[in-house]
Amino acid sequence: MDRSWMNHKGVKDRQKPEYLAGFNEFLHFAFIGKSDGTMLKCPCLNCRLVLSQNRKNMQCHLLVYGIDPTYNPWVSHGESIQEIDNDKEGYIGEVSDNEKASTEHESTSPKLTYREKRRLEQAELRLKFPDRKRRGPARSKKYGPRMWNSNSKEKIKINFMDELCRVVGEKANEFIYDCSKWVQEYCPVDSWNWAKMDKVAKTRLYYKIRGKYDLPEKVAGADVTEALSFQCSMLYKHWRFRLKEQHFRNKSVADAISSRPNTIDVGPWTWLVCEYWNNEKQKHISKVNTKNKLKQTETPANGARSTARIFHDLINAPPTPTNSRT
Ligand SMILES: [Zn+2]
Question: Which of 52, 131, 238, 251 has the fewest CB atoms below 10 angstroms from its CB?
Fold first, then answer.
């Protein structure tokens, strides 16, 4: 039995038909004669046969975290070493390859970027809680008029959901609202992207946030600034997206320039309209993004939603080997 599919090296590998067919075969094997609700040892890189999962969660884990490539033969799921020895293609010969692959995996898996990690975690969360309430658009209405006494020494404690770096708790919405407001206040609108954002602006922004909110030192083992930076980068992106929708789309450049919001200075606004939004490269990126969004149902794109969608589709209709995607 070919188990080369187990040597996946990342999310992209796990979206390939070989992996999908392979892990479905594994699930079928593991759960044969058992109900889907049965809890079995999960061989994903997170549970590593220590934690047990039902079929649906295991399926999810094998996609999101990936199977432990060293788990062969599948002894915890009823396979014996003997059976594998008799296999024509041979398991013994593959062991060294597997071992090599596993050490490679160890060294490559922590290289997942923060975004990739978070995207996967969110995808998993959506799978686990498909009915999870999504926040409405009314945060500004709800939290805008609220006053906070800036002389107060007491800070508002903010919690992050473990491993997800998601701000949680009853103060989460207020926190996001404030961060969004301060991003607009401190961060110049004329930056190519968040990474290139003026360091002084970022420092002042974080200082402001930490003046009101009491944040933990570490979030999921990383410095809280990393989580904060990610949070703010999204808010910055959303802010500019809203500006683009309101002041640029379907308008001439001249109209866009004159429709400047009075909270933004002429210089940065002109740059945003002429150099950034009207830039050929930017237009191209925007066009490609739109096109990809439209193709989301059929093509794996890289956006968070589409990743979630891929997983969702896979969970609901496991593909067969013939159902190959490109
Ligand atoms: Zn697992």
Answer: 131
